[in-house]
Prior knowledge:
The structure is a homodimer. Chain A is globular. In chain A, α1 packs across α6 (99-109). Chain A is an all-alpha fold. Chain A is built from ten helices and no strands. Chain A binds a DNA duplex through α3.
Amino acid sequence: xxxxxxxxxxxxxxxxxxxxxxxxxxxxxxxxxxxxxxxxxxxxxxxxxxxxxxxxxxxxxxxxxxxxxxxxxxxxxxxxxxxxxxxxxxxxxxxxxxxxxxxxxxxxxxxxxxxxxxxxxxxxxxxxxxxxxxxxxxxxxxxxxxxxxxxxxxxxxxxxxxxxxxxxxxxxxxxxxxxxxxxxxxxxxxxxxxxxxxxxxxxxxxxxxxx
Amino acid sequence: xxxxxxxxxxxxxxxxxxxxxxxxxxxxxxxxxxxxxxxxxxxxxxxxxxxxxxxxxxxxxxxxxxxxxxxxxxxxxxxxxxxxxxxxxxxxxxxxxxxxxxxxxxxxxxxxxxxxxxxxxxxxxxxxxxxxxxxxxxxxxxxxxxxxxxxxxxxxxxxxxxxxxxxxxxxxxxxxxxxxxxxxxxxxxxxxxxxxxxxxxxxxxxxxxxx
DNA sequence: GTCTATACTTCGATAGAC
DNA sequence: GTCTATCGAAGTATAGAC
Lengths: 211, 211
């Protein structure tokens, strides 16, 4: 019989929603406790402070994200396909964890103010894994000469931004201030895959031979 | 003789820095007042509330951004060049107003919670102007078939993200967790221009004739 | 327009019984 | 592990003299 989800997990889930909605500073511990149906003292019993709760949450998600990306990087597919897969994984992660895009956006804006060394290390595995794919592709002549970190942002930023902006885009559409974008995020994923494939392709004029 | 900057302007400048650093919820009115070298009562005298101060600030910047982009859209250059110009303008805006990327990131994450109708209207002029350029390019056969709004995010998100993430990237580099990216934002602008030019190009196999 | 002082509220965190 | 009650700090906003 499926046991009822235990307190710490419920708290983490509630915190994810609250932090996504309001950011670290805007998040209210009372609200998190209420959403999790525990009282505040219980929350402090499990996670010492608002900050530690926040960091625990981030480490969890970025650990999973890093693992998935590393699996792709370690695969045997051609670099072009790995990038396609990476784009799909980013999009999936962002949909599976709706709080991810908001939190990423905010944490970037905040210059990582709430992150400790360990959390930063976990977080950094994601761009590292992606950069490895790009570097491999450049070396193999599958991509033009790119800065792997620049390439990472070229891909991740639109996915995160597009997903996170869905509510505000819907509002602007309702106000007739913006044409409604294709609401299917699948379409956007394909748009990104197609765009990046072209953007990263080596110049067609001459075939580069691996030396 | 250049008169000393008047209070409301100093307050707006200070507010820009504070909101960029901490977000709306994290921003402290006391700090804004101190940064502006006015006292808190003065701030409330000019701008009624923290929220009105915030909105005033955003309307100012997005008004300028919208104007610049509309000027490009109205120009006579070919669509490809207009997009190059738009990319350059976004990058310039983001550098001229260092608070812009943080605030955009946060406002997207917050689903526009602090924005009223008027501010949203001002803000929406930017994607509208850009989408017009893309639509023109598609109609002229200069671009492949794109969702103009998707195209907008494909461009703006990396620029904003890359600029806003500079501090956290520097930290990660210092921790040896990430290779230092080309710090020159000019390089990134050229990367984006080159990438987008390729990403938006129509299929080379067949020339489309305008009907 | 500008200041000091302060009212009022909310929040993060803890004490202590069970 | 779970609760109620509450403290002390910090925050937004205002009153009222100049």
